[in-house]
Amino acid sequence: MSFKAVRDQDASMRLLGNMLRRRRVPNGLLFWGPGGVGKRLAAIEMAKAVHCREREDDACDVCLSCRKIAGGNHPDVTFLAPVKKSRIINVEAVQSMTALASLRPFESDWRVFIIQEAERMGVPAQNHFLKTLEEPPGNSLFILITESPGVLLATIRSRCQRVRFGTLRPETVASLLERTRDLPPDVAQSIAAVAQGQMSRALDLVDSDKREVVLAVAKQLAEGGDPLGLAEDFASRIEQRRGQIQTALKAEIDHDALKEASREEREEQKEQQSALAEALIRRDIMEYLYLFETWYRDALVLSVTGDVARVLNRDQLDGLRATKVGDIDRKCAAIEKARIYLERFLNEGRVFRDLFLVLAD
Ligand SMILES: [Zn+2]
């Protein structure tokens, strides 16, 4: 692989190639854009290209250095990511990274650090990192990857060169789905359309039953199903999912380490656990709302324009045509309102009851 392996990000890949060719690689690069569009892959290809012994502006994929990085065992390429339990990149992790940055590289001229979910650095960690960025060791490259650059300190952002990543083309997502999930082309194309260029979303749609659930609810509401009963079922589904997430997180706890921890540390860990569980469940809920939104938007687009190409759920045309579109603006507004309420942690059961009542209208 090489920069060519990073799909649909041609301008950004050219930018990286030019930096290498002109030998003007900055110490900080900020890869930002939506999830699941190739930022991490691009960071690995950049690390390979920086170290490559054969090529100047890309990775050859053949030399020892390229192969070591592809295998994840090059001593001068280091990954930093939020740790599993707290989902935080703490100051200690950043300190050990910057200590490493101050040493000479082992095998080549550069040390590359790839910081995934960089926005997960706490403020103390960011401040510590900032000091290193202000006076970076000459031969170190920090690649920060994030979906939310706004969460990073402005002083960090201004010291990194930004590289923007956009969504993928639906054809790209569909062909990746066909390959990685072994889906028939028509199913892959529908999922790709609904995912709107985010590979991570497309994979979640394949691997979870969210879309089936939303399609079933929309269908039942259109056929005069009881919105209150459906809302109750839906809320208990969310509650069940919350239980699953909490159990999975509990299984991750290192009980031996916990025995030696102080009471404050134990309390803190508990708090972090429940914060993480809530973040995960909220991500799920937001995906459900996204799917409802695509459904009603599609019903409207189809009835107004009749243009199937503009419809995302294009494998569901019969269901979309059966959906009443008289009051779709109100329905979309209700979905947006539900999103805002749920972001404020309002009672889920109630929010969905109010939402389904409007959607049933
Ligand atoms: Zn190489």
Strand and helix layout:
Blueprint: H1 10-21, E1 28-32, H2 39-51, H3 64-70, E2 77-80, H4 91-101, E3 111-115, H5 123-134, E4 140-146, H6 154-158, E5 161-164, H7 170-181, H8 185-195, H9 199-207, H10 210-222, H11 227-252, H12 255-260, H13 263-305, H14 317-321, H15 328-343, H16 348-360
Parallel strand pairs: 1-4, 1-5, 2-3, 3-4
Helix pairs in contact: 2-3, 4-5, 7-8, 7-9, 8-9, 10-13, 11-13, 11-16, 13-15, 15-16
The structure holds zinc ion.
Zinc ion is lined by residues 52-54, 59-60, 62-63, 65-66.
Q: Would you kindly provide a written description of the structure presented here, covering whatever features stand out?
A:
- By secondary structure, this protein is of the alpha/beta class.
- It has two domains: 3-164, 3-Layer(aba) Sandwich (Rossmann fold), CATH 3.40.50.300; 208-360, no CATH class.
- Helices cover 59% and strands 7% of the residues.
- The chain contains 16 helices and five strands.
- It has a five-stranded parallel beta sheet, sandwiched between helices.
- Strand 2 (77-80), helix 4 and strand 3 form a beta-alpha-beta unit.
- Helix 7 (170-181) packs across helix 8 and helix 7 packs across helix 9.
- It is globular.
- The structure holds zinc ion.
